[in-house]
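sorry to bug you again but im stuck and you know this stuff better than me. theres a chain ive been looking at and ive put its sequence and its fold in token form underneath. id like you to explain what the token line says about the fold, in plain words if possible. anything you notice is useful, everything is just below.
___
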Amino acid sequence: MKLPIVALLATALPLAAHADVTVSDPWARASILASRPAAAYLTLVSDGDDRLLEASMPVAAEVMVHATAVDDAGLSRMNHVTTVELPAAEAVTFAPGAMHLMLTGLSGKLVEGTSFPLTLRFETAGEVTVDVPVLGVGASGPEGGQR
């Protein structure tokens, strides 16, 4: 009995890796001037190992991931991160004073009460777009959500 070639290929080829990423609690602080960088925050959870490769939004010319590190002298420094590892089922949180999305080249200031789309590109999950609400200048996170 001959098996159809499709059946043979299906058993010979490994299944492609796939991960879904959940984005929760996205938010940004209102900015005072469009000429100054702003920041956005969120939490990512992937159901399989994945990696954040890129972020973009129409209100910023460039979106970079920055991690905050404290040196031996106690000074905080922001370091550009090119990719963010997302281990399966582990929350990766972007928060004030820690890892965050740095928004530069704003097309206008971020106004409290508005929102903007953020597109995240992952190695396995592909593109995910979420709506990011703009909170007040002194906000520490969305009400009832993670910081």
Summary: Helices lie at 5-12. The first strand starts at residue 21 and ends at 29. Strands lie at 21-29, 38-46, 50-56, 60-70, 76-81, 84-86, 92-94, 100-106, 115-122, 126-135. Confidence is low (pLDDT under 50) at residues 1-16.
